[in-house]
Design brief:
UDP-n-acetylglucosamine1-carboxyvinyl-transferase, Chain, four-stranded mixed beta sheet, 23 strands, binds shikimate-3-phosphate, binds phosphoenolpyruvate
């Protein structure tokens, strides 16, 4: 299957490895029944567990590890003795490893893809510098690649940090805080985005014996020892969101998802509430999450501040289902794997939908009034563009550019689709 979809690596006489781009065709299928057996574990949870495990002496057994590239990178890089650390396009891996290597006094160069070099990291670097890390920008100030030249001892125990650019900076600092001799208090300034990810960090730290307090705008982490503990990673709710979208758009659906809990550490489990309004009923049955269809609303008002990774999934469902959307909290989408606002605007237009930026904080989603029979979607090197537009194959013939992008978080996405007859 993998062979068929991804145009393959060809070794040319000069021994260069060339990867050719290709597309995947999805067969229009409007009745879906089956189980997405290959839904991976959460990359967010997994990457936190790997960093904390490394800080606790790498003695814990982590069960149900994700096969996502972002996690496989973290697994390989966290204990790497190489000087050059290439995180590719993995944001959490970049931000968490920067704090980890800086505070553990490791001399490293951290780099990534061309897009990674456009994703800001200055707020984290400033915080680490004020803590005592020597960090240089190798190309552009505020962005990777970074050169880490060691840690000269803790200089402060309180840092003021903006909360509205990326919560990953806050999580990165929280996880290293227990090993700092004086612990660390973070005073969060301005709006706090992606808050459930900060809470997830605190909760996984707690699992490994490190307490913290998150009161109003302060995160307080005392100096303490992490203790090794077995840990099991739950399935990925962000990945599950695409199955909710398939259900919402199909004519008939009965889809089962494994290893998900409705009481999850993952903020993206809020997809249950959102999709309840867009026509999906979700309930547990024999340990699996079962998705079936129900009536949907005509409009959706939603604030994505705390679940930015669901923005694309929901926008596509609304556009295709004739549901008008009034959205806030999409600002951070501009600095993710691609500018997701621009990417959505381009691709939604192909099915007759529009994402209108009313002002800096408000977006209106104008749904399509007439869906085309066949569409080719571009993916902008963004796994979520590929996965968010795939559910349209319930309504039209879909072709998706560079399907291999899904490997970042859900490498077997197309294999799971095959089980439903879509590939
Ligand atoms: O901490 C995490 O695991 C993540 C936090 C979010 O990023 P921001 O905090 O930058 O919004 C989210 O978009 C990303 O996919 C994973
Ligand atoms: C934004 C994402 O990832 P990251 O920031 O970790 O690259 C994502 O998975 O949607």
């Amino acid at each position: 299957m993998y062979q068929k979809i991804f145009l393959q690596r060809v070794i040319c006489p000069l021994k260069f490895l060339i990867t050719l781009n290709t597309t995947i065709h999805l067969k229009r299928t409007n009745v879906l029944q089956g189980t997405a057996t290959l839904l991976p574990a959460s990359k967010s949870i997994n990457n936190r567990a790997l960093i904390i495990n490394a800080l606790a002496g790498s003695k814990s057994e982590i069960q149900n590890m994700s096969d996502a590239n972002d996690v496989q990178l973290m697994l390989r890089l966290v204990n790497s003795t190489d000087e050059i650390i290439d995180v590719e396009d993995a944001g959490t891996t970049m931000r968490f490893l920067t704090a980890y290597f800086a505070v553990t006094n490791q001399h490293k160069v951290l780099t990534g893809t061309s897009r990674m070099k456009e994703r800001p990291i200055g707020i984290l670097v400033n915080a680490l510098r004020s803590l005592g890390a020597d960090i240089e920008y190798m190309e552009k100030d505020g962005y990777p690649p970074l050169k880490l030249n060691g840690f000269s001892g803790q200089k402060t125990d309180t840092i003021r940090i903006r909360g509205d650019v990326s919560s990953q900076f806050i999580s990165a600092l929280m996880m290293v805080a227990p090993v700092l001799p004086n612990g660390l208090t973070l005073e969060l300034e301005g709006k706090i985005g992606s808050r459930p990810y900060i809470e997830m960090t605190a909760s996984i730290m707690k699992h490994f014996g490190a307490s913290s307090e998150f009161i109003s705008n302060k995160v307080i982490v005392p100096h303490q020892q992490y203790t090794p503990a077995p840990f099991t990673v739950e399935s990925d709710w962000s990945g599950a969101s695409y199955w909710f979208a398939f259900t919402a758009l199909a004519e008939k659906a009965e889809i089962y998802l494994p290893k998900l809990s409705l009481q999850s550490l993952q903020g993206d489990s809020v997809i249950v509430k959102i999709m309840d309004r867009l026509g999906v009923h979700a309930g547990m049955e024999n340990g699996l999450l079962k998705l079936t269809k129900k009536e949907s609303q005509k409009e959706l008002h939603w604030d994505f501040t705390h679940c930015p990774d669901l923005g694309q999934t929901v926008a596509v469902v609304c556009a295709a289902k004739g549901i008008k959307g009034y959205f806030t909290g999409l600002e951070s989408l501009r600095i993710k794997e691609t500018d997701r606002i621009a990417a959505l605007q381009n691709e939604l237009q192909k099915i007759g939908g529009k994402l209108v930026e009313e002002d800096t904080e408000n977006w209106t989603l104008i749904p399509s009034s007439h869906l085309p029979g066949q569409v080719y979607f571009n993916t902008y090197k963004d796994h979520r563009m590929a996965m968010a537009f795939a559910p349209l194959a319930t309504l039209m013939n879909v072709e998706i550019e560079r399907p291999e992008v899904v490997k970042k978080s859900y490498p077997n996405f197309w294999n799971d689709l095959k089980e439903f007859g879509l590939v």
